[in-house]
Structure formats: structure tokens, C-alpha cells
Specification:
Blueprint (H helix, E strand, L loop, with lengths): L1 H45 L5 H23 L7 H22 L1
């Protein structure tokens, strides 16, 4: 019996290590894509500066992505804490919108 549980622990450890390496590789790949593909294209777009409309679009996309990641990571899914998520979404959106329009 002890041999069976130690084998199971070893397999779980290997699976966890593989999952971690896959996630790390995905994050590294996405970072490289952003740095070498998206950043040059964005720098050409941002050269003349951003207006309020463009800043609102970028702020909405960033806010939506961050809120979805936070809700999924919280474990309640996408509908768990809606009464707290919606006001936070709008406050976060307005803050990012103003900051992007101010900086660029």
C-alpha cells in the first residue's frame, strides 16, 4: 500500500511540473509575441497620440481582460460575485481610460 501512494504522489508531482512548464512556456511565448509583433505596430499607431475615443477602446479591452481573469481566478466563475464585479469594472475602466488619455 505505501508503494502505491508514493507512486501516485510522484505522478501528481510530474503532472504538476509539466503543467507549470506549459504555462510558463505559454506566458513566455505571449510575451515574445507582444514585444516583437504587437509593440512595433502599436508604436506606429501611438506616434501621433491618442484621443479620448481610442483611449476608451483600449481601456475597455484591458479592463475586460483583467476582470475576467480575476473572476476566473477567484473560483466563483464568471457569475459568482457580479454585485461586486460590475462596480469595480466601471471604476477600473474610468481610471484606465483617464490615465491612458492623459499619458498618451
Amino acid at each position: 500500500m505505501p508503494d502505491n501512494s508514493s507512486n501516485r504522489d510522484l505522478e501528481e508531482r510530474k503532472a504538476t511540473t509539466r503543467l507549470f512548464l506549459i504555462i510558463a512556456a505559454a506566458i513566455l511565448g505571449m510575451t515574445l509575441i507582444v514585444v516583437f509583433v504587437v509593440a512595433p505596430a502599436m508604436s506606429a499607431q501611438l506616434a501621433p497620440g491618442l484621443g479620448i475615443r481610442e483611449a476608451a477602446l483600449i481601456a475597455f479591452i484591458v479592463t475586460l481582460a483583467v476582470v475576467v481573469v480575476m473572476m476566473v481566478a477567484a473560483g466563483d466563475g464568471l457569475l459568482g460575485e457580479v454585485q461586486y464585479t460590475l462596480p469595480a469594472f466601471f471604476m477600473f475602466f474610468v481610471l484606465i481610460w483617464i490615465l491612458i488619455a492623459w499619458v498618451f
